């Protein structure tokens, strides 16, 4: 049976210029996904907390990969 390890990445809307008018800068998100993917992580889930339109929430990414 495959065992998994998980990693949660929180990207705060208010700490960076990552969110712009409720639109994520897709090139920055691509870079994040590519970097984690190159380390063997697969994006398992994505969600938002709060209201990122007003800089009060976060983007939450959950990654998984098989345990070695």
TrEMBL record:
One Pfam entry name: DUF4177
Protein name: DUF4177 domain-containing protein
Organism annotation: Emticicia aquatilis
């Amino acid at each position: 049976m495959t065992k998994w390890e998980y990693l949660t990445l929180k990207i705060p809307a208010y700490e960076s210029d990552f969110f712009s008018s409720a639109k994520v800068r897709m090139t920055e998100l691509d870079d994040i996904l590519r970097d984690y993917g190159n380390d063997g992580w697969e994006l398992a889930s994505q969600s938002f907390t709060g209201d990122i339109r007003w800089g009060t929430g976060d983007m939450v990414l959950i990654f998984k990969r098989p345990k070695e």
